[in-house]
Amino acid sequence: MFALTGLQWLDLVFVMCLLCWADCSPSQQDDMAPLEVKFYSLDFRNVLRWKHPHKAAKNLKYFVQYKIYGDKEWTNSEHCQGIHELECDLSEATADPREWYYARVRSFSPEGFSSWVLSHRFYPQWETSFSPPQLKVTVTGQTITVQIKPPRTPLRGQKGSRIRVTKLQKLAFRIYLMHNGVEEEIHETDSCSKELVIERLRPKTTYCLQALSVTPRSGRKSLRSSSTCVNTQ
């Protein structure tokens, strides 16, 4: 049986300690890794955000990649390579609301790159929130006509105009009619209705209207819009 000398035992213990230190101690690069990498989405504006690592210097640069769930290869986000900001707009890269996406971020310091930090699996159609619609209100006698303008995505169509969210997601719009701060009527329209007519109101009365967007499947609601007030004749 092979026996180790005292010096050989010391060498062996030293090597084992080095291996344990390499495997068990936190690396400086992991201290530089971004924190809380998450998607935030409003009207299909899909933004990846993260936090600056606590122990890191302030001059870190960040690099972002993304991929569709199931793909093997990652793609660089061209406008988010070597940035100092703590967010990256991935709306174009995640434009199909029925796909699942991942993104990841790593930082770069004079010591080198940190490890990659992965986001949660992101599904835009389920996770995006919506703004309330815009209202354009006109009065004719005791009738109020409300034109409803759905919120728009950051994506652009063939003519260059921004695409309405209703092209990608079915929504309903709830309109509140108020007088002296009290809700008198509540109307709900679907995505196809662009106009609401409210008739037989009191003459020479001030009415205010607010609106919100509702996702029919989930029942999720947007915040209410600011009030638009008009006077009947």
Automatic annotation (TrEMBL):
<dbReference type="GO" id="GO:0005886">
    <property type="term" value="C:plasma membrane"/>
</dbReference>
<dbReference type="InterPro" id="IPR015373">
    <property type="entry name" value="Interferon/interleukin_rcp_dom"/>
</dbReference>
<protein>
    <recommendedName>
        <fullName>Interleukin 22 receptor subunit alpha 2</fullName>
    </recommendedName>
</protein>
<dbReference type="InterPro" id="IPR050650">
    <property type="entry name" value="Type-II_Cytokine-TF_Rcpt"/>
</dbReference>
<dbReference type="InterPro" id="IPR003961">
    <property type="entry name" value="FN3_dom"/>
</dbReference>
<feature type="signal peptide">
    <location>
        <begin position="1"/>
        <end position="22"/>
    </location>
</feature>
<dbReference type="Pfam" id="PF09294">
    <property type="entry name" value="Interfer-bind"/>
</dbReference>
<feature type="domain" description="Fibronectin type-III">
    <location>
        <begin position="13"/>
        <end position="116"/>
    </location>
</feature>
<keyword id="KW-0675">Receptor</keyword>
<keyword id="KW-1015">Disulfide bond</keyword>
<dbReference type="InterPro" id="IPR013783">
    <property type="entry name" value="Ig-like_fold"/>
</dbReference>
<feature type="domain" description="Interferon/interleukin receptor">
    <location>
        <begin position="128"/>
        <end position="233"/>
    </location>
</feature>
<dbReference type="GO" id="GO:0004896">
    <property type="term" value="F:cytokine receptor activity"/>
</dbReference>
<dbReference type="InterPro" id="IPR036116">
    <property type="entry name" value="FN3_sf"/>
</dbReference>
<keyword id="KW-0732">Signal</keyword>
<dbReference type="Pfam" id="PF01108">
    <property type="entry name" value="Tissue_fac"/>
</dbReference>
<comment type="similarity">
    <text>Belongs to the type II cytokine receptor family.</text>
</comment>
